[in-house]
Amino acid sequence: MAALKKGRNASATGKPWRSLALILIAIVALTGGMFASGHTTPRLGIDLAGGTSITLAAVPEAGQESAINPTNMATAVSIMERRVNGLGVSEAEVQTQGDRNIIVNIPKGTNSEQAREQVGTTAKLYFRPVVSTELAAGGAAPTPSGTGDTSAEGAEDTDGDKATDGASEGEATDKTTDEGSPSASTSPSASATTQGRAVTEALKADPTPSTTAGGSAEASPSGPATDGAAEADNELQAQYAALDCTKASVRATAGDGAKATDSTVACGQNSQGQWQKYVLGPAAVDGTDVDDAQAILNTQTGAGWTVTMDFTDEGSKKFADITGQLAQNPSPQNQFAIVLDNEVVSDPYVSQALTGGNAEISGNFTQKSSEELANMLSYGALPLTFREDSVTTVTAALGGEQLEAGLIAGAIGVALVVLYLLLYYRGLSFIAIVSLLVSASLTYVIMALLGPTIGFALNLPAVCGAIVAIGITADSFIVYFERVRDEIREGRVLRTAVERAWPRARRTILVSDFVSFLAAAVLFVVSVGKVQGFAFTLGLTTLLDVVVVFLFTKPLLTLMARRKFFASGHKWSGLDPKALGAKPPIRRTRRHSAPAQTKEA
To answer: Are strands 358-365 and 385-394 parallel, antiparallel or unpaired?
Structure first.
């Protein structure tokens, strides 16, 4: 048994180059992956790269103060994260502050401005049937949205159908009268009385305004309207007549105060950049009924970029009900408007009931416009309404100064550690310094790879965590070196001292690193925001410390112990037996037995 143990130890210590080759292969592979991915530097957080910090405050609807609760706030944070991350800004931070505020940090970079616009769009998403629509007075809008020219599955583009030929000259046509026959065209510049009459006729002819937000639909009852309904119609007529969608201030307040079960007015853009105003029926489908939406390039049918929607079980029934009703109506009452923040982002029409639980919106989409619409459909429905309280912008120059300060602090820390090692350990400091370089290389490469992989962003607290890790790594070397020196003081030669010191040093290093990693893990779980960057970096570097000490530092010291400079105890090696106060070499002494006594007379 003793012979077997001796042979195993001899094999493990006799080929330390195996461990060195293993860690060298790992470094080469990770470095190659870093260059192959094209991400040769770690991603920087908002405090280092610059960006925008937005504070959103939850605003309760009338009589729904209790809606602002931890559950709804957590849901809103989750949706905002998915909404921003859906645009590729994966290093963005979304977190709660207090009981009704949400902080959104968006680093400067690709899609950051687009993400800021969408995260500030906090209203609920609804699918509402179109009752009436016409071009707004004034014509073109500053910039087209690219989403107004969509159509539902099996239908064609709706832009050209929103108005008749006369509408191309600035006129819009109301499609139905109360008898269901075509009516005369209505000019945008017509009197309020004429516009109000067109809206009333459309409301009478369209059965969908009685569709509830829950998805159930009933035809409008025949007979005279009640006084309340007539008053509501008159109010809607007045809103529609006064609605000028070419004015930003008017668009911002269009439909304010309308509930999901109410008919309302809204504005939207078509693909030509023209503003249109709408009368919309009660919401038939809620944004929360959309399970998923994706932008897809449809090359088989030649439809170009399209948006596919998958509904929940409840949403599938609602969508089937509303599309079945709309398909029986003339234009524009066969259209439904996708309304986000009281603005129509798309108004496709349907030609048949869509009962499969999914639908495809097609039209003159670009890749950008289709992705924007899909993102809104997937992540647009928030359980609460938010207002933008403050916006703070951190410039790239300020972030660069903070990064420079962090790097200088790290360089000073490394310099002090190296100076201490040189003065106290002399030749042994070479092993420690090379081990620190290996640890730093692994840390840098892994951080660069974690950016595109899991969205890790290096912020100032993370830099602090890396600086603290320098001391943790150096501490592991010191523990091992001191164990070796203790063995030399006991009179053992260096090669024996290196192997005898390792088991005890290994236990101490593992316990120390376990405590550091446990502290980092707990801090990561209980903290939020940038503090998590410190905890993550500290935990990562602690794990790398174990890898470097086991696979690099110990094998390298085993090899160096075979070199004459170290083995002979040179005074500059840091292992000089005389300088360490070593005892004489331990030697076995032969015990002499006492001579046998004889009995003498």
So the answer is: unpaired
Residues 571 and 512: their CA atoms lie apart, in Å, by: 31
CA distance 495 to 97: 58
Q: What angle do CA 516, 509, 459 make, to 5 degrees?
A: 35
Q: What is the DSSP letter of 566?
A: H
Enter the tokens of residue 542.
Answer: 């602690």
SS3 assignment, position 9: helix
Is the full-model pTM beyond 0.85?
Answer: no
For the record, the structure tokens of 436 come out as 């620190």
Contact 567, 575 (CB under 8 A): no
- Picking from 153, 170, 164, 46, the residue whose alpha carbon sits closest to that of residue 457 is 46
d(C-alpha 365, C-alpha 126), whole Å: 21
Q: What integer is the mean pLDDT of 568-589?
A: 74
Taking each helix axis as running N to C, give the angle between helix 227-242 and helix 192-205, from 0 to 180 degrees, rounded to the nearest 10: 130
The closest of 489, 498, 512, 487 to 555, measured between CA atoms, is 498
Q: Which of 477, 539, 552 is nearest to 513 (CA)?
A: 539
From its phi and psi, is residue 227 left (phi > 0), alpha (psi between -120 and 50) or beta? Answer: alpha
| Distance separating alpha carbons of residues 180 and 178, to the nearest angstrom | 5
Helix axes 460-489, 396-425, angle to 10 degrees: 0
Please say whether the beta carbons of 107 and 530 come within 8 A. no
Query: What burial class does residue 478 get, using C-beta atoms within 10 Å of its C-beta: 0-12 exposed, 13-18 middle, 19+ buried?
Result: middle
Rg of the chain over Cα atoms, rounded to whole angstroms, equals 37
- Is-contact 32 96, C-beta < 8 A? no
CA distance 558 to 535: 33
For residue 332, cis peptide bond before it (omega within 30 degrees of 0): yes
**Token code pair at residue 301:** 């049918």
Of 321, 228, 225, 336, nearest in space to 278 by CA:
336
Residue type, position 378, single letter: S
The span from the CA of 268 to the CA of 346, in Å, is 8
pLDDT digits (tens, 9 = 90+) for 406-434: 788 888 888 888 898 888 888 888 999 99
Specify the pairing of strand 101-107 against strand 51-59.
antiparallel
Q: Which residues pair with 276 in a beta bridge?
A: 135, 268
d(C-alpha 277, C-alpha 266), whole Å: 6
pLDDT at 397: 66
Q: Which residues pair with 244 in a beta bridge?
A: none
- Of the CA atoms within 13 Å of residue 171, those in its CB half-sphere come to 12
Q: Could you tell me the CA-to-CA distances from 232 to 3, 258, 553 in Å, in that order?
A: 98, 12, 81
Residues 153-177: tens digit of each pLDDT: 433 334 433 333 333 333 333 333 2
331-368: b or e for each residue (b if 16 or more CB lie within 10 Å)? bbbbbbbbbbbbbbbbbbbbeebbeebbbbbbbbbeee
DSSP 8-class letter at 549: I
* Residue 25 confidence (pLDDT) above 90: yes
Q: Residue 131 in contact with residue 279, Cβ under 8 Å?
A: yes
Strand intervals (E) in 223-367: 264-269, 274-280, 285-286, 290-298, 304-311, 336-340, 343-346, 358-365
Contact 307, 373 (CB under 8 A): yes
CB count in 10 Å sphere of residue 586: 8
